[in-house]
């Protein structure tokens, strides 16, 4: 089969999601109001709450939630075959991710731009807020610590990506100033992306690397420290100065990158070397059910998206009607990246024969982002004639820039969570932005170097928990949205059914990993896995109690009216 068939099926499904399903959800379920005063206007402070053009905000939202996950997850999941990975990415994007991301943005917009954890108090109850925010903080801790390692490793292994990755910050600062002065967005986007791609070409010809030892630390450890210093500074700057323009330019360069990849598929029409269903799955490999649904998170549905939507994006929403464009179309962008990843790692560009493909995917987890970069670079080279080294630098930089924007937003979100704790528990010093940022960064570095030693890779210790924790959080977010819809007297099945499925799969996956951690004697992961499971069960019980209270109130009101 030719890979173009996968592209046509995937794009057709996502087009239906955008033009038909998302419009139905916007008009009939969430009922967006163009006259609603958004938090960005109500609390405009020029720093965190800033009304933003929907295209710029889409760029921020999309690149913040993308990271490397919609590449790594599908690239690993293809081990079970391209058919199940394709089905989950397409259906997950349409009926799960779009509704989830869009819903979290809408719900936060209706609750003063609060994070999904903080607003759960208004929807479910006070105890749910405290429980919910524990899971959110733990997930952000994982994401920030791990993405620091991912970017550091990419800088060490692909020194050509160093120059464009840091040059993107300078480009973003200039673009941010010009956007703030109301200059033409299209012109800025074109020029900014052109400069960014020039830096990628320059980076491939001018690789940069740190000394093999500096301050007694390895290059990887030094990069991690540098990245967290940068993330701390970036998280305290006004969003219009760096976060928005950096994410906007990254979003535009991803559109160009996707055009190169999808265009190459159409030009070359390569065959697939991977099987639709892998019949050579090893005995030690995890079962496709439920692990497929937590291995592919971003690109199908991800709890982290709800944190971003309700943490930073809701504070920048100019009009409530922009929520569909930012939230649902952001999920479509994630899905399109996951789709082309499946194509890149399943075709002859990566492995010319089925046997060669099986040699790369000889066991679960043996291939990931590296397979995407290799397969995608060859695909671009074959389709467009771009030299392989330049194509590889383009894709490696794409991965680094996405991971970087996620890390930027992740540290800012941790700051928000800590400041919300300061408000909830009346601790004025925690509400201070500088103090909250320092605590956020210190917690990440403590995990990185406290658990990982001089290498700074301690975040990887918690990474096995990410898949199930992330998806449990997605289920909890859908739970909050469902209860909110129920109280508003609207149809709940469009969020309730995805919620049940996601929670069932993620709970099963968490139980599978809990048994595995127990057998390995990894008591830290056993404890944290159990905490996540117990916390989510308590939130669901609180939600059930809230629903019962609401129905009793309705019943009593009906009796009084009669």
From TrEMBL:
It is found in: Cell membrane. Residues 3-346, 367-509 form the CstA N-terminal domain. Keywords: Cell membrane, Membrane, Transmembrane, Transmembrane helix. It comes from the Bacteria. Its main location: membrane. It is a multi-pass membrane protein. The chain crosses the membrane at residues 6-26, 62-82, 88-109, 130-155, 161-178, 185-203, 223-243, 250-268, 288-313, 325-351, 389-408, 429-451, 471-489, 496-517, 523-544. Belongs to the peptide transporter carbon starvation (CstA) (TC 2.A.114) family. This is Carbon starvation protein A. It comes from Sinimarinibacterium thermocellulolyticum.
């Amino acid at each position: 089969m030719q890979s173009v068939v996968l592209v046509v099926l995937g794009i057709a499904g996502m087009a239906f999601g955008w033009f038909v399903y998302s419009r139905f959800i916007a008009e009939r379920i969430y009922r967006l109001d163009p006259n609603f005063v958004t938090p960005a206007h109500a609390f405009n402070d020029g720093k965190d709450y800033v009304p933003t053009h929907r295209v710029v905000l889409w760029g921020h939202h999309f690149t913040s939630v993308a990271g490397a996950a919609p590449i790594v997850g599908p690239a690993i999941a293809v081990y079970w075959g391209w058919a199940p990975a394709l089905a989950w990415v397409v259906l997950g994007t349409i009926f799960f991710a779009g509704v989830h991301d869009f819903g979290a943005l809408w719900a936060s917009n209706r609750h003063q731009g609060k994070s999904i954890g903080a607003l759960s108090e208004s929807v479910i109850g006070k105890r749910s807020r405290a429980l919910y925010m524990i899971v959110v903080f733990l997930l952000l801790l994982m994401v920030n610590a791990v993405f620091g390692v991912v970017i550091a490793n990419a800088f060490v292994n692909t020194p050509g990506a160093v120059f464009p990755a840091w040059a993107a910050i300078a480009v973003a600062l200039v673009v941010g100033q010009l956007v703030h002065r109301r200059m033409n967005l299209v012109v800025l986007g074109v020029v900014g992306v052109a400069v960014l791609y020039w830096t990628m070409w320059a980076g491939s010809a001018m690789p940069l690397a740190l000394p093999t030892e500096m301050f007694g630390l390895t290059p990887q450890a030094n990069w991690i420290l540098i990245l967290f210093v940068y993330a701390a500074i970036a998280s305290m700057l006004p969003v219009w100065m760096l976060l928005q323009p950096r994410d906007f330019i990254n979003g535009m360069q991803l559109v160009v990158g996707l055009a190169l990849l999808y265009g190459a598929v159409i030009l070359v029409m390569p065959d697939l070397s991977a099987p639709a269903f892998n019949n050579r799955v090893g005995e030690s490999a995890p079962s496709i059910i439920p692990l497929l649904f937590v291995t592919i998170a971003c690109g199908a549905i991800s709890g982290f998206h709800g944190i971003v939507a309700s943490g930073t994006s809701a504070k920048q929403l100019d009009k409530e009607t922009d929520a569909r464009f930012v939230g649902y179309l952001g999920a479509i962008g994630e899905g399109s990246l996951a789709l082309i990843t499946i194509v890149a790692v399943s075709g002859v560009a990566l492995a010319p024969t089925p046997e060669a493909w099986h040699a790369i995917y000889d066991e679960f987890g043996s291939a990931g982002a590296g397979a995407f970069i290799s397969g995608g670079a060859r695909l671009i080279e074959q389709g467009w004639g771009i030299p392989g080294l330049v194509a590889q630098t383009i894709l490696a930089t794409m991965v680094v820039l996405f991971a970087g924007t996620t890390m930027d937003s992740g540290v800012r979100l941790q700051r928000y969570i800590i400041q919300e704790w300061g408000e909830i528990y009346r601790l004025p010093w925690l509400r201070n932005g500088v103090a909250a940022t320092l605590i956020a960064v210190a917690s990440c570095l403590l995990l990185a170097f406290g658990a990982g030693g001089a290498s700074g890779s301690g975040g990887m210790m918690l990474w096995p928990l990410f898949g199930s924790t992330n998806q449990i959080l997605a289920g909890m977010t859908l739970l909050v949205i469902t209860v909110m819809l129920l109280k508003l007297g609207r149809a709940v099945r469009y969020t309730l059914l995805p919620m049940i499925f996601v929670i069932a799969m993620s709970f099963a996956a968490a139980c599978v990993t809990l048994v595995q951690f127990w057998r390995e004697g990894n008591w830290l992961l056993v404890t944290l896995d159990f905490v996540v499971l117990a916390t989510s069960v308590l939130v669901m019980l609180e939600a059930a109690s809230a629903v019962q209270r609401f129905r009793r109130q309705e019943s009593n009101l009906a009796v009084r009216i009669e």
